[in-house]
Design goal:
single chain; mainly alpha; 3-stranded antiparallel beta sheet
Length: 119
C-alpha cells in the first residue's frame, strides 16, 4: 500500500477547489488572503471572465495556478501547519522530495471514516 502523495497532487486539488470558490463563485477568505491574491492576479493576467470554472482553464493556466499555489501556499503554510496541529500523527513530509507520507494507522482511520469527513 503506497501511502505517499506528491505535493503536486495536493496543489492540484487545492487549485480546483479554490479557483471555483474564489473566482467562479466569488467566495473569499478576505481580499488580502494570499490565495485570493494569487488567483485574482492569474485571472487578470489572462483576462479570464469571473464565471469560468477551473475545468475550462487551459493546461497552461492550470499549471501556473498549481505551481503558484504549491510554492506560496502548500509548501509554506498548509503542510507544516496541519503537521504541527496534529503533532505529526497523521503524516510526515519531505520538502526536498515534495512528498507527503501518511501514517498507516491514520490512513486506515481516514479511510474508515471518510464519509463522515467528506459529508
Amino acid at each position: 500500500m503506497n501511502l505517499r502523495i506528491s505535493f503536486e497532487i495536493i496543489a492540484t486539488s487545492f487549485s480546483k477547489l479554490y479557483w471555483n470558490l474564489i473566482i467562479k463563485h466569488q467566495y473569499t477568505q478576505g481580499k488580502n488572503a494570499r490565495i485570493h491574491t494569487i488567483l485574482s492576479d492569474i485571472q487578470l493576467q489572462h483576462q479570464l471572465p469571473s464565471e469560468i470554472p477551473y475545468d475550462s482553464l487551459s493546461d497552461l493556466i492550470k499549471n501556473q495556478v498549481h505551481s503558484e499555489i504549491q510554492n506560496a501556499i502548500i509548501n509554506k503554510y498548509v503542510l507544516g501547519a496541519l503537521y504541527k496541529d496534529t503533532d505529526g500523527l497523521i503524516y510526515g513530509f519531505n520538502k526536498r522530495d515534495k512528498i507527503l507520507q501518511f501514517n498507516p494507522s491514520a490512513y486506515k482511520f481516514l479511510l474508515k471514516f471518510q464519509e463522515v469527513f467528506l459529508g
